[in-house]
């Protein structure tokens, strides 16, 4: 009995000690917890747009997410601006409520097929109509005489276009090029499956082979926002125009784009990246058929639910443009243009307060859609570290700003791509932190 009492006393003492430790741990200074966040982030890695940053361990949480934790102070918060997640559009769409809400019954959209008479047989007629109408309203692309191919984002459409344009009986894969700085996912998507049909051949400005090639023309360009034309200009070349950012919140619309293959996406036009809907305007019927075949084999079509949601949103944008003269009416493009213009004003002011960084300048032009005269307002800032800083990505990472370095775009590591599409809190932290960086 005595032994039992003795042991019980020991258990009580140990229990009390453990509880005191727990209380002390909970009340531990939040500054210590914030400091430990920096070591935690180094142990976590993410892939963005399919790219693993082996020298750049990005974190799972951004400053606006629940995982960022309320106890992390603003001066220690990690600002993740590596990827172009268009969360800045959330507030606009929250205001729309039922106007853009789609309700689907369980018995609807069961079939694979949408329109068997159409080349793209899984394209919903409502989405086709909404796409055609919006391009006509904005005036940014010719749709007459084009076939519309819908895809799971423009990334799938890019791969479908490569499949359709590559010779299937050639002895060597066709070369695929784009002028640097090019979109960082192009090389990865081109070579990911190690296809015998096509291969990444690098910077279009350095391509000098007398061989067939496919050139990707991204305009406005990701990452630097510049207006692009094809570079190689040879007889054996085939062009794909990626026009994801050819919308009036990012660039003046000068004329309707009129190319053989044009790629668009709701990700950057409306901000609905999670819907995974893109579309291609294709002039040649056989190319459109081959692109459809690729998507048919790859995913047996595209989600009808996503298509119907996208159609509803595109129609709402066109409706708002039609009613733009009504009192207190603000179109989606008015809202997003003002937001982008304000953000670019703020980041330029932040950069002007330090000699460590610089940003590109853009020529002002008059937009045929809005009548405004302005320079480019790219979705990404192509930020350059001046002076002795040779690794801008690593330099900013030390200051808890995560970006994507120039090497991923075929450019100098003195440059980084910074997303301008984040939530307001993240962007504000960026413009506060940049001028405060000394070295």
Automatic annotation (TrEMBL):
Every Alliinase C-terminal domain range: 79-437
Keyword Cell membrane: no
Biological process per Gene Ontology, one example term: amino acid metabolic process
Pfam families tied to this protein: Alliinase_C
SUPFAM superfamilies, sorted: PLP-dependent transferases
Name of protein: Putative tryptophan aminotransferase related 2
Annotated signal sequence range: 1-23
Organism lineage: Eukaryota, Viridiplantae, Streptophyta, Embryophyta, Tracheophyta
Classification via CDD domains: AAT_like
EC number: 2.6.1.-
InterPro entries in alphabetical order: Alliinase_C, Alliinase_N_sf, Ethylene_sulfur-biosynth, PyrdxlP-dep_Trfase, PyrdxlP-dep_Trfase_major, PyrdxlP-dep_Trfase_small
Gene3D superfamilies documented for this protein: Aspartate Aminotransferase, domain 1, EGF-like, alliinase, Type I PLP-dependent aspartate aminotransferase-like (Major domain)
Cofactors named for this entry: pyridoxal 5'-phosphate
Keyword entries, A-Z: Aminotransferase, Pyridoxal phosphate, Signal, Transferase
Molecular function terms, GO-annotated: carbon-sulfur lyase activity; transaminase activity
Family: Belongs to the alliinase family.
Class of the enzyme per the UniProt entry, highest EC level: transferase
Keyword Chloroplast appears in the UniProt entry: no
PANTHER family the UniProt entry points to: BIFUNCTIONAL ASPARTATE AMINOTRANSFERASE AND GLUTAMATE/ASPARTATE-PREPHENATE AMINOTRANSFERASE-RELATED, TRYPTOPHAN AMINOTRANSFERASE-RELATED PROTEIN 2
């Amino acid at each position: 009995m005595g032994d039992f009492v003795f042991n019980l006393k020991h258990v009580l003492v140990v229990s009390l000690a453990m509880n005191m430790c727990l209380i002390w741990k909970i009340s531990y200074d939040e500054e210590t917890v914030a400091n430990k966040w920096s070591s935690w982030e180094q142990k976590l890695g993410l892939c963005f747009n399919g790219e693993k940053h082996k020298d750049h361990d990005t974190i799972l949480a951004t400053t606006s997410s629940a995982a960022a934790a309320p106890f992390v102070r603003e001066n220690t918060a990690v600002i993740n601006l590596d990827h172009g997640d268009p969360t800045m559009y959330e507030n606009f769409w929250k205001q729309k409520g039922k106007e853009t809400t789609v309700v689907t019954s369980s018995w609807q959209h069961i079939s694979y097929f949408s329109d068997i008479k159409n080349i793209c047989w899984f394209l919903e007629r409502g989405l086709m109509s909404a796409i055609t109408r919006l391009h006509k309203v904005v005036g940014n692309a010719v749709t007459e005489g084009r076939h519309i191919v819908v895809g799971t984002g423009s990334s799938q459409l890019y791969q479908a276009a490569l499949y359709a344009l590559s010779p299937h009986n050639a002895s060597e894969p066709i070369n695929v090029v784009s002028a640097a700085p090019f979109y960082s996912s192009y090389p990865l998507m081109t070579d990911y499956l190690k296809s015998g049909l096509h291969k990444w051949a690098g910077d279009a400005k350095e391509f000098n082979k007398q061989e067939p090639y496919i050139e990707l023309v991204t305009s406005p360009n990701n990452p630097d926002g510049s207006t692009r034309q094809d570079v190689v200009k040879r007889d054996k070349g085939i062009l794909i125009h990626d026009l994801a950012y050819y919308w009036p919140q990012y660039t003046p619309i000068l004329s309707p784009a009129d190319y053989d293959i044009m790629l668009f996406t709701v990700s950057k036009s409306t901000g609905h990246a999670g819907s995974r809907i893109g579309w291609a305007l294709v002039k040649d019927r056989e190319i459109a058929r081959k692109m459809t075949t690729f998507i048919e084999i790859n995913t047996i079509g595209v989600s009808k639910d996503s298509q119907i949601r996208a159609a509803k949103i595109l129609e709402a944008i066109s409706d708002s443009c039609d009613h733009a003269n009504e009192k207190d009416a603000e179109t989606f493009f008015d809202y997003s243009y003002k937001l982008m213009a304000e953000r670019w004003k703020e980041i330029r002011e932040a950069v002007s307060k330090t000699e460590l960084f610089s940003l590109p300048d853009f020529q002002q032009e008059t937009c045929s859609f809005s009548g405004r005269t302005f320079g480019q307002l790219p979705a990404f800032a192509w930020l350059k570290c001046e002076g002795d800083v040779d690794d801008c990505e690593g330099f900013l990472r030390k200051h808890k700003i995560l970006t994507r370095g120039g090497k991923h775009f075929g450019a100098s590591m003195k440059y980084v791509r910074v997303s301008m599409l984040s939530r307001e809190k993240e962007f504000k932290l960026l413009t506060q932190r940049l001028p405060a960086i000394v070295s």
